[in-house]
Structures are given as structure tokens and as C-alpha cells.
Design goal:
alpha+beta
């Protein structure tokens, strides 16, 4: 998979994956965060990673006896990546690292 990033479509960030352009929709990210704030504390973005880890633990703990870790490994890896994405997609603004 080839991923390239650029800014062009009406000054919105874009990603190109395997030759297809995608616009990063900041409004949807804002709506997602607002929705999450309705059912979980959002004191800091690390809360996203904590929640995905709890979901992973629940998956492992409540898995059927005949289910192997190899069968749920893709789900757990996906949750880990989602937790990392959510934790890192927002960064606190600090005066010393604002663009000039």
C-alpha cells in the first residue's frame, strides 16, 4: 500500500492510497470527538488508547473456549492501531511550535 499526503482540495489535507485521493474531513473528526465526550471522559487524548485497550482485554477475557488467539489477533491489532491513531491525531497546541 502506498500512502502519500498533500494539501490541495480547497486547502484540505489529502491522502493518496494506492492511487486514490481521499480528503481528511476535519468536521467529522470534530463530531467524533464530541460524540465520544458524551460517554467517556476526554481529559486528554490518552483516554482513547485506554478505552481500546479495555476493549481488547474484554475480547480476550470473554472469548469462547474454542477461539484461539490467532483467530482474534487481527481484531486486537486493529484495536491497537485505532487506539494509537486516536491518541496521536490530536496534539495540544504550544506557543513555541506554532507555524510562523
Amino acid at each position: 500500500m502506498v500512502i502519500e499526503k498533500s494539501i490541495s482540495f480547497h486547502d484540505q489535507p489529502m491522502l493518496k492510497m494506492n492511487g486514490t485521493d481521499y480528503v481528511v474531513n476535519i468536521e467529522e473528526i470534530e463530531a467524533f470527538i464530541e460524540q465520544c465526550g458524551k460517554f467517556m471522559p476526554l481529559d486528554n487524548v490518552a483516554q482513547f488508547e485506554v478505552l481500546t485497550q479495555e476493549i481488547s482485554d474484554t475480547l480476550i477475557d470473554s472469548a469462547r473456549g474454542d477461539l484461539t488467539i490467532e483467530q482474534i489477533r487481527p481484531h486486537l491489532l486493529f484495536l491497537r492501531e485505532i487506539g494509537f491513531l486516536l491518541k496521536t491525531m490530536l496534539s495540544p497546541v504550544q506557543e513555541n511550535n506554532l507555524p510562523i
